[in-house]
Amino acid sequence: DGGITQSPKYLFRKEGQNVTLSCEQNLNHDAMYWYRQDPGQGLRLIYYSQIVNDFQKGDIAEGYSVSREKKESFPLTVTSAQKNPTAFYLCASSVEGVGGYTFGSGTRLTVV
Amino acid sequence: GIQVEQSPPDLILQEGANSTLRCNFSDSVNNLQWFHQNPWGQLINLFYIPSGTKQNGRLSATTVATERYSLLYISSSQTTDSGVYFCAVLAGNNRKLIWGLGTSLAVNP
Fold this sequence. Notes:
The complex is a heterodimer of chains A (112) and B (109). With 112 residues, chain A is mainly beta. Chain A has strands spanning 4-7, 10-13, 19-25, 31-37, 43-51, 54-57, 64-66, 76-78, 87-94, 102-103, 107-111.
């Protein structure tokens, strides 16, 4: 079955460490997205990519980095520059500009 | 930029009741989606509905683009319908979905 796989489901990070969240899709979607969700809040866009080897900053890109070397993969790195990284991170994909989005099951990141 | 407002912010229902959730948007849109986020965080796309009416089982949605609103109907609610319902839109050349703050629904047995 086609879908989006995010891993790990739970992640604990020490302050000062970089961590990378994985997002893989087999839907053949061109566009992929990373969102952050804080408790009781809506979704905020971190980065998005419309095509391989290209990506754009969203509304809260500071302290994050991404790559899009393959159509299927859009990993997110949370760097030590991100001051408040504890949150729920969601990856999504879509056919560019049309249709519905498909979301992964999310990664809960906690800084300890 | 375009504004998306959802109402009500919170809703409590008894199992079996019907409900209507509303999404207002401040400008013309070319993409409107309804999502359900379950208590474990999984977001499921319910409808892609920039205009017209669609139905899927006990759920249906109507978007009246000219009047800038969309409605999500839940009939014969079940406890598994609990969670947060989000509306999100795309407008013009904007590549980013604009999200409402959601309606938090609790269905009690």
